[in-house]
Write a structure and sequence with these properties.
This protein is α+β, with helices and mostly antiparallel strands and about 190 residues long. The strands form 3 sheets. The chain has a 4-stranded antiparallel sheet with strand order 2-8-5-6. A 3-stranded mixed sheet has the order 4-3-7, with no helix packed on it. The chain has 2 domains: about 1-120, DNA methylase specificity domains (Adenine-n6-DNA-methyltransferase TaqI, Chain A, domain 2), CATH 3.90.220; about 135-180. The mean pLDDT is about 85. It is built from 5 helices and 9 strands. The radius of gyration is 30 Å and the shape is elongated. About 40% of the residues lie in helices and about 20% in strands.
Amino acid sequence: MVKYLKELLTLRYGKRQNEVESEKGLIPIYGTGGIFGYAIKPLYDKPSILIGRKGSINNPMYVKTPFWCVDTMFYSEINTYIVNPQYLYYNLSCIDFNKLDEGTTIPSLRIETLNSIQLSIHSLPVQQHITDIPSIYSSLFNISIIFVSSFLLLINNSFNSCLTLIISVLTSSSDILLLSSIPTYLPGTSE
């Protein structure tokens, strides 16, 4: 089914961070380039898609945790009854927002322009399956990292154990006598 973006989410303006920014803050503050500070309280606390309003407009971001975003960005209140937030983010990531630029000197977007974007979306169950795919691959990747790390640790420990055993054998007095009886020349060569 085809939907206008305004049917899937409500765009809101970010706000200046001056009153909430703090070195003691735990809430990320997003600008068009990503996180640049921390706030003491969130502007919004549900999953959201952030879209640059001025400046870097072609880098939408998906945020799952409480956040603050500045006035050069839009944040979104997503209608989760008809669209999965992560699925919508994947769709919006495929759009070249630079083609929608309405600025004269600085790239800019308006809510009206964004609201008129048409997207073809699947049913919610299909959306969920689509968003599960990267999670499955991510989990498999994490499992393989754990397996490889464990294997390398096992090899390292085995090598260290073998090395310790060899050193203990070489340093025991009875073995030194044995080692002294080993010829120092290679077979097939003269002494």
